[in-house]
């Protein structure tokens, strides 16, 4: 603690911080009044006004200004929050799930609180891809913040058709495939729980567009790694992990499930350990960037996701309690980098992963109930 205080004082007299931090410290050979500069691996040494580069590339030229995005379904189309949030300071916006035709969503009730989170079964209510293009893309095109359109469908041709209508439209910076939808061709099984189906839909969309392509993993599988690999092999530029966990709630009468749709998706802080585990496992088997999602409510969560290999995070459920949180996290991450003497958040990525390249996540040793 003493060393930390002394260093900050000395560095504050420097005109600018170098990219590679050095530390001014006393050494045994230096006189008590003298200092020498030696490279360091550790303590914080960056001036409070030094710019920190939080930008990160997700592939095909999609460069986020910072690694804090808002998650699909929790921030509308971005335009709704203009009065309360500095939208353009976000790292990216994933808009509400978009389908080929308009959807009115599931029957009510559609949401309920759960311990440490919520359960939702909105059912992809949205006006359909053509209306999304008409209503929002012109506004998005004028924003600095990249807008990634979350796409859902019930068949491969659904996904391809939606993406074809988004391809080349100014304001659409990328596509995020929500593959946690029933695959009609496979009798209602989700694309996200089957490696072949996940790979097929990714490959089909990849053939259709050169837009940056993210594919969103589901945590509702026994082993996510083969699915992540299939998606990466099929040409995705990045993965997002995770979508909600399947759950139900019981009506107060205890005579039926609470949600009109019976099943809903659990989100919020309660799912963070699961999301971290998925990112940790996937980061060890693919080379493409991973965006972590699940229960981010504070800076420590962002740092945790980075540590297990995510290059960026999305904030979802927490936005309902505080829409200004994501922008605040950007500022806090900047501060956390400076406090560690870093001029970028990249050194914080993957620090909790096993060191051996190619090592699996302790296969056989990880917790498997
Ligand atoms: C109300 C609500 C609606 C959502 N809608 C979508 C959606 O349309 N598409 C999608 O891929 N994910 C959707 N999600 C999942 C979130 O994007 C996110 O993956 C999940 O909530 C976990 O993050 P969190 O714990 O920070 O909320 C939705 C989540 C909530 C709570």
Task: Please render the helix and strand layout as text.
Elements: H1 2-11, E1 22-25, E2 36-39, E3 56-57, E4 63-64, E5 68-70, E6 92-94, E7 111-114, E8 117-120, H2 129-141, E9 147-151, H3 156-166, E10 174-178, E11 182-183, E12 189-190, H4 195-208, E13 213-217, H5 225-233, E14 238-241, E15 245-247, E16 264-267, H6 272-283, E17 290-293, H7 299-307, E18 312-315, H8 318-321, H9 325-339
Parallel strand pairs: 5-6, 5-18, 6-9, 9-10, 10-13, 13-14, 14-17, 17-18
Antiparallel strand pairs: 1-2, 3-4, 7-8, 8-16, 11-12, 15-16
Bound molecules: flavin mononucleotide (FMN).
Q: What does this molecule look like?
A:
- It is a single chain.
- With 369 residues, this protein is an alpha/beta fold.
- The chain has nine helices and 18 strands.
- Helix 3 (156-166) packs parallel to helix 4 and helix 4 runs parallel beside helix 5 (225-233).
- The longest helix is centred in the last third of the chain and has 15 residues, at 325-339.
- Bound molecules: flavin mononucleotide.
- Flavin mononucleotide is lined by residues 71-74, 96-97, 118, 120, 122, 124, 150, 178, 216, 243-244, 267-268, 271, 293-296, 315-318.
Summary?
By secondary structure, this protein is an alpha/beta fold.
Q: What is the 3D shape?
A: globular
Bound molecules: flavin mononucleotide
Rg, alpha carbons: 22 Å
Number of strands: 18
Q: How many domains, as an integer?
A: 2
Strand order across the largest sheet: 5-6-9-10-13-14-17-18
Question: Looking at this structure, what is the CATH superfamily of the largest domain?
Answer: Aldolase class I
Q: List the uncertain runs.
A: 1-40, 362-369
In whole angstroms, how far apart are the ends? 42 Å
């Amino acid at each position: 603690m003493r060393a930390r205080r002394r260093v900050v004082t000395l560095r504050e007299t420097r005109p600018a911080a170098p990219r590679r931090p050095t530390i001014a410290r006393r050494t045994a050979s230096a006189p008590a009044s003298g200092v020498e500069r030696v490279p360091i691996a550790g303590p914080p040494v960056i001036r409070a006004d030094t710019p920190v580069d939080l930008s990160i590339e997700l592939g095909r030229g999609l460069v986020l200004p910072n690694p804090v995005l808002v998650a699909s379904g929790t921030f509308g189309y971005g335009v709704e929050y203009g009065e309360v949030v500095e939208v353009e300071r976000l790292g990216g916006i994933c808009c509400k799930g978009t389908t080929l035709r308009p959807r009115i969503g599931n029957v009510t009730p559609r949401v309920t609180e759960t311990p440490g989170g919520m359960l939702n079964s909105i059912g992809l209510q949205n006006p359909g891809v053509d209306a999304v293009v008409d209503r929002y893309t012109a506004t998005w095109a004028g924003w600095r913040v990249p807008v990634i359109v979350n796409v859902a469908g019930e068949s491969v041709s659904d996904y391809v058709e939606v993406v074809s209508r988004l391809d080349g439209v100014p304001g659409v910076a990328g596509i995020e495939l929500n593959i946690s939808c029933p695959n009609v061709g496979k009798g209602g099984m989700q694309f996200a729980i089957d490696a072949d189906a996940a790979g097929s839909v990714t490959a089909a969309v990849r053939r259709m567009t050169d837009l940056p392509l993210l594919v969103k993993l589901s945590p509702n599988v026994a082993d996510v790694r083969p699915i992540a690999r299939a998606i990466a092999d099929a040409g995705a530029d990045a993965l997002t992990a995770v979508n909600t966990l399947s759950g139900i709630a019981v009506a107060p009468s205890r005579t039926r499930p609470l949600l009109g749709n019976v099943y809903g998706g659990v989100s919020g802080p309660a799912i963070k350990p699961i999301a971290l585990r998925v990112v940790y496992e996937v980061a060890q088997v693919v080379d493409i960037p991973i965006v972590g999602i699940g229960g981010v409510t504070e800076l420590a969560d962002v740092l945790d996701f980075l540590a297990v290999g995510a290059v960026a995070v999305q904030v979802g459920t927490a936005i309902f309690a505080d829409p200004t949180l994501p922008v605040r996290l950007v500022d806090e991450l900047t501060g956390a980098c400076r406090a560690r003497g870093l001029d970028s958040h990249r050194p914080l990525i993957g620090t909790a992963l096993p060191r051996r390249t190619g090592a699996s996540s302790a296969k056989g040793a990880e917790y498997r109930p």
